[in-house]
Design a protein that fits this description.
Shape: globular
Membrane topology: Multi-pass membrane protein
InterPro entries: MetI-like, MetI-like_sf
Number of domains: 2
Family: Belongs to the binding-protein-dependent transport system permease family.
Subcellular location: Cell membrane
Organism: Paenibacillus phyllosphaerae
Number of strands: 0
Radius of gyration: 24 Å
CATH topology of the largest domain: MetI-like fold
Structural class: mainly alpha
CATH superfamily of the largest domain: MetI-like
Strand content: under 5%
Distance between the termini: 21 Å
CATH class of the largest domain: Mainly Alpha
Largest sheet: none
Length: 293
């Protein structure tokens, strides 16, 4: 049966329109970051800058040493956190997908319970500062996101249950493989689409995380890139609003509107660069938990 050409054209046109609508804000963001501050004040935001300017990036990279160190911290946290997050998530999710696990339903409910109820900010802060003594340490940026992935555990459990054939596991048992061998040599290679999906989510959460740095980190040498850029922007706004003598003149010369845009561009570019490497598996992983015919 041939497809109706009018219908095919309409579908393609709709997807092109949605793609343009999704891409337009980012293009406007990039264009604004290269626009002169006064041009934005006079003419507003536009895809083609009224007057081209690199003032925003010049201001940011006047602190290039701090930015590069923060990039390094963020990259380290993202790589280590994503790797450990995938390991812990799969080590919990795979046993939960097996019917032979004792107390399987209770453990699954315990994981699900953490999605519905949390202790709140004060207990969260006290546990990591007074009990675990992680204030102003690199662990404060790593562990909180690592240990709050109940949704990812349930997602991977569904993937293991629906996508890993039980016959494959049983045949491995017959051949004398133990649980660790089955997990490492059979289950993990078959779970690449699910791992890529969860890995991308973990990567984004670690790269964009600013909240843990805000409440746990006061040491400037441990700022992630998100915390550093937000702190730089907050400092400029503070000087402008309070009109502090001497420093106010320097602050008023900072292109505050375009700096905001440049901060967003610098923060998002590494994620855009990383996405093509995940796309092949991410599309497959979108069907985790879907009903199969």
């Amino acid at each position: 049966m041939k497809s109706n050409p009018v219908y095919v054209f309409a579908v393609h046109a709709a997807f092109v329109a949605m793609s343009i609508a999704a891409l337009f804000p980012f293009l406007l963001l990039v264009a604004a970051s290269f626009t002169d501050e006064q041009a934005i004040i006079e003419h507003g935001y536009a895809l083609i800058p009224e007057r081209f300017s690199l003032d925003a990036y010049a201001y940011l990279f006047s602190n290039s040493v701090m930015i590069m160190r923060s990039y390094g911290i963020t990259a380290f946290i993202t790589v280590v956190g994503t790797t450990l997050g995938l390991l812990i998530t799969t080590l919990i999710a795979y046993p939960l997908s097996r019917n032979i696990l004792p107390f399987r339903s209770f453990i699954s409910f315990f994981v699900f319970f953490t999605l519905l109820f949390q202790g709140g900010l004060v207990p969260f802060y006290l546990v990591y500062t007074d009990l675990l003594h992680m204030k102003d340490t690199i662990w404060a940026l790593l562990l909180p996101n690592l240990l709050t992935n109940g949704f990812f555990i349930l997602l991977m459990r569904s993937f293991f249950s629906l996508s890993i054939p039980g016959e494959v596991v049983e045949s491995a048992y017959v051949d004398g493989a133990n649980e660790l061998t089955i997990y490492y040599r059979i289950v993990m290679p078959l779970a690449l689409p699910g791992l890529a999906t969860i890995g991308l989510m973990l990567l984004i959460s670690y790269w964009n995380d600013w909240y843990n740095g805000l409440i746990f980190i006061n040491d400037g040498t441990l700022f992630s890139i998100q915390n550093l850029l937000n702190r730089m922007l907050a400092d400029v706004q503070y000087l402008q609003q309070n009109n502090l003598s001497g420093q106010a003149a320097a602050a008023t010369s900072v292109p505050i509107s375009t700096v905001r845009m440049a901060i967003a561009v610098i923060g998002v570019l590494p994620l855009i660069a990383a996405y093509p490497f995940f796309q092949k598996y991410f599309v497959k992983g979108l069907t985790i938990g879907a009903v199969k015919g």
